[in-house]
C-alpha cells in the first residue's frame, strides 16, 4: 500500500509517518519510508533550492516540486510497490495542490494535471491529513525556518484552509485527523484506517 501524510509544518505528520513505518515493520511488512521534496539524490538537491532560495516564482516552485516528485516516483516509490513493499511518504501531490494550487493561486486542476503527468497518475491508497490550530503549529515549528515557513502565520493559515478544502474534494482518499491528539492515540487511529487496505 502507498500511504501519505499531509499537513502544515508543525502538524505532526513526520512523527506519524515514522510511527506508522515502525509499526508496519514490527508486523513483518517490508516498508520504504521517504519524504518530499527529497528521497533521491536529485530530489535532495531540488529540496535545497526549494527551501533555501531567496525567492521563487509560484510556477517555478510548483514545477521544482513536481520534478523532485517525478524522480522519487521513478526511482523509489514505483519500484518499491512493484516489489510488494509498502510505501510511507511525508508529503506528496496534495502538498502541491494545497501550497501552489490553492494558497499560491495557480489552480488545483492545473497543478494536478502537471503532477499526474509526471507521476503517471500514481495516487496514494490513503492520505492522512493532520490538522492543528495555527498557534499550535507555530509553537511546534523549529527555530530555523525555511523559505516557506518564513512566509508567516497568514500563509500557513491559507495552506491549512487549502488542505481542508482538498479533504472535501478527495474525501474518499483523504482522512482528516486531529493533530493535537496524543501521538500514540493518533497512531492507533491511523492503523485502524488502514485495516481495509491489502
Topology:
Layout: E1 2-6, H1 13-26, E2 31-35, H2 41-52, H3 58-82, E3 86-90, H4 93-103, H5 108-118, E4 126-131, H6 134-140, H7 153-169, E5 174-178, H8 183-193
Parallel strand pairs: 1-3, 1-4, 2-3, 4-5
Helix pairs in contact: 1-8, 2-3, 3-4, 3-5, 4-5, 4-7
Outline the structure in words:
With about 200 residues, this protein is of the alpha/beta class. The protein is about 55% helix and about 15% strand. Strands 2-3-1-4-5 form a 5-stranded parallel sheet, with helices on both faces. Helix 3 crosses helix 5 (about 110-120) and helix 4 crosses helix 7 (about 155-170). The mean pLDDT is about 95.
Describe what is shown at a glance.
This protein has eight helices and five strands; from the N terminus they run βαβααβααβααβα. The chain is an alpha/beta fold and 198 residues long.
Amino acid at each position: 500500500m502507498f500511504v501519505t501524510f499531509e499537513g502544515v509544518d508543525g502538524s505532526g505528520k513526520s512523527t506519524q509517518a515514522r510511527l506508522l513505518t515502525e509499526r508496519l515493520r514490527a508486523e513483518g511488512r517490508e516498508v520504504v519510508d521517504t519524504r518530499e521534496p527529497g528521497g533521491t539524490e536529485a530530489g535532495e538537491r531540488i529540496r535545497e533550492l526549494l527551501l533555501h532560495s531567496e525567492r521563487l516564482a509560484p510556477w517555478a516552485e510548483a514545477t521544482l516540486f513536481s520534478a523532485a516528485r517525478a524522480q522519487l516516483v521513478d526511482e523509489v516509490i514505483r519500484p518499491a510497490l512493484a516489489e510488494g513493499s509498502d510505501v510511507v511518504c511525508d508529503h506528496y501531490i496534495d502538498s502541491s495542490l494545497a501550497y501552489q494550487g490553492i494558497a499560491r493561486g495557480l489552480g488545483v486542476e492545473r497543478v494536478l494535471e502537471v503532477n499526474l503527468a509526471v507521476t503517471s497518475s500514481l495516487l496514494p491508497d490513503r492520505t492522512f491529513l493532520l490538522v492543528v490550530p495555527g498557534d499550535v503549529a507555530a509553537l511546534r515549528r523549529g527555530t530555523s525556518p525555511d523559505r516557506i515557513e518564513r512566509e508567516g502565520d497568514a500563509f500557513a493559515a491559507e495552506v491549512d484552509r487549502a488542505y481542508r478544502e482538498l479533504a472535501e474534494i478527495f474525501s474518499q482518499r483523504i482522512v482528516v485527523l486531529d493533530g493535537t491528539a496524543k501521538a500514540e492515540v493518533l497512531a492507533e487511529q491511523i492503523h485502524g484506517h488502514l485495516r481495509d487496505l491489502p
